Amino acid sequence: MTSSSSRYRESKEKSAEIMRQVVAMMGQHDAAFNPVNFAVWYEHLAGINSRLTKALVKAQQTEPRLSYATMARLHQECVAEPDAESMHQVSLQLQKVMTGVWGSASRAGEQAGAYEGQLKELVLEINSDAALAVRPLITRILDETTQMGLTARQLSSEVTRCRLEIDRLSKELTRALDEALIDPLTGILNRKGFDQSLAAMLEVSPKAGGSHCMILFDIDLFKKVNDLYGHVMGDRVIQAVGDTLTACAAHLASHSVARYGGEEFVILLPDCTLELANQVAETVRQRTKSIKIRDRRSNSVAVSITISGGVASLRLGDQAKALIERADRALYQSKLAGRDRITAC
């Protein structure tokens, strides 16, 4: 499946015309004005998805007014991409076009109102016998203009309602996208969130005298915690370590904290010296040793833990894989040397 950026290559003028057609088409069916419905009609009317067009035409043969369930199915089968970013872009596009339609409707209503006022003044000014002959025609035009103004105002009201609904859906979509990057147990970034943060960090060159650094951590002998105390206690340990990493990096202007996987964690430090990254890693190690997980029934200390870390800084020509592998090697050296220590690579 091609990405949305490679699919949508229409010019600004062309896309604006397609969007107007999309809005008109959406109004003829039962599915709501939302990004999913918009994306289906856009790709169909733009002529960029022949598979979708065939499926859409077939669906309309049995369902003239397409429902949201049908549109969602068509989107999932013929439009949806593996990532959710395209949905975010569609939402933004839909907001833009609806804003444009709202502006056009508002201007049409204002123009109709002004024209209606001018006609009323003209009717009042017609007094001569010669002018009375055309008065019925002007009255009819006045009535039609009044109706046009009413229709324009109704359209403006409907578009305003749609804009509010799109805003609501957009906020829900943004929240869903954010939640998709968060580890539910610790509240910090998950692996996908880490991957995005790392990519963003590497897109920007570090400032003079600095570098981009990464610290990879692993809880020592974590398997024993699960084996001896169960997974509930293991989850409490994971949560406590996540809180510790967050607190230790909170004073830094720019950083990312993530659960890399299982009992592994990572801190990304853009524009940071290797010395400062080592200090952060050492602070995490020391504070982790002070974590005491208590048995809630007896209030006695049930688990004490330690953590090992590997620190790596970005080198000239490094890609994401090279930086991760170097941090992982440094972490492995910490484990080999007896755990509960930090190694820089």
Give a description of the structure.
With 345 residues, the chain is an alpha+beta fold. The chain folds into three domains: 4-78, no CATH class; 85-179; 191-344, Alpha-Beta Plaits (2-Layer Sandwich), CATH 3.30.70.270. It has helices spanning 4-7, 12-26, 35-46, 50-62, 68-78, 85-125, 129-132, 135-179, 191-203, 222-229, 231-249, 274-289, 320-336; strands spanning 211-219, 256-261, 264-272, 292-294, 301-304, 307-313, 342-344. The chain has a five-stranded mixed sheet with strand order 2-3-1-6-7, with helices on both faces. The chain has a two-stranded antiparallel sheet with strand order 4-5. Strand 2 (256-261) and strand 3 (264-272) form a beta hairpin. Helix 4 (50-62) packs antiparallel against helix 5 (68-78) and helix 11 (231-249) runs antiparallel to helix 12. The longest helix has 45 residues, at 135-179. 29% of the residues are buried. Residues 1-5 have low confidence and may be disordered.
How would you concisely characterize the structure shown here?
With 345 residues, this protein is of the alpha+beta class. Helices cover 63% and strands 12% of the residues.
Distance between the termini: 39 Å
Structurally, the number of domains stands at 3
Highest CATH level, the class of the largest domain: Alpha Beta
**How many E-type strands?**
7
Q: What is the share of helical residues?
A: 55-70%
Structural class: alpha+beta
Poorly predicted runs of 5 or more residues: 1-5
Rg of Cα set: 31 Å
Biggest β-sheet strands, sense, barrel: 5 strands, mixed
The CATH superfamily label of the largest domain reads Reverse transcriptase/Diguanylate cyclase domain
